[in-house]
Design goal:
Layout (H helix, E strand, L loop, with lengths): L1 E6 L3 H11 L5 E7 L2 H10 L4 E4 L8 H11 L5 E5 L4 H9 L4 E4 L4 H12 L4 E2 L1 H14 L13 H11 L4 H8 L3 H15 L4 H10 L4
Parallel strand pairs: 1-2, 1-3, 3-4, 4-5, 5-6
Helix pairs in contact: 2-3, 4-6, 7-9, 7-10, 8-9
């Protein structure tokens, strides 16, 4: 089973989202919290595969909670789910390493698809904010100095291109006839070679350098 931590301050909305999540036979909500502080505490307490995080919550915002969780566990997978199509929120969340920014008016199929994508290393950004956010990310996230594409093997370049195209690990594995584990290992090596923090920066690097 995939364990999901749900952080949402409105009880009725939280119950509705939980019902949508648990339509998937492999997903279960392992903890429900009403603010960012509780989300940080619950992440430490439970075995969590993905955090579904609201933005505007009392005590501590979802952005602040995402920052703390990602600092403590750089491998943490966070998907932002919010009412607000706010590019600043989206920009900040993605810079902190969130793997997606989804609006609450999404249907169950879109929500489940986004969760699956994030679990597989993909990035999901709602179409209403993607057009504004992606160009700003490309301009604002600086690439490491001295990076040369020649450091990458042809296999690594192929994987980098597919990451830049928004493909998740499963899709990359199928496209290149590799196992998911092999793809994950390659992505880790590419990140280390380029001195990048996470998959979001890797996708942006691919776009900035014309790999895509």
């Amino acid at each position: 089973m995939i364990n999901i931590l749900l952080a949402e301050d409105q009880a009725l909305v939280r119950q509705g989202i939980k019902m949508m999540i648990e339509q998937h036979p492999s997903f279960r909500v392992v903890a429900e919290v009403a603010n960012g502080k509780e989300a940080v505490e619950a992440y430490e307490k439970h075995l969590v595969d993905l955090v579904l995080m609201d933005v505007r919550m009392p005590v501590m915002t979802g952005i602040e909670a995402t920052k703390i969780i990602r600092q403590r566990d750089p491998e943490a997978k966070v998907l932002i789910l919010t009412t607000f199509a706010d590019e600043e929120y989206a920009l900040e969340a993605l810079k902190l390493g969130a793997l997606g920014y989804l609006l609450k008016d999404a249907d169950a199929a879109s929500l489940l698809s986004s969760i699956e994508s994030c679990l597989n290393g993909g990035i999901s950004i709602d179409a209403s904010v993607a057009g504004k956010v992606v160009p700003r990310l490309i301009n604002r996230i600086s690439e490491p100095s001295g990076v040369e594409m020649v450091e990458l093997t042809s296999r690594e370049r192929s994987i980098l291109q597919l990451v830049g195209d928004g493909k998740n690990n499963q899709e990359i594995a199928e496209a290149l006839h590799l196992s998911i584990g092999t793809v994950k290992n390659h992505v880790t090596v590419i990140l280390q070679k380029l001195g990048l923090r996470d998959r979001t920066q890797l996708a942006i690097f691919a776009i900035r350098n014309g790999v895509v």
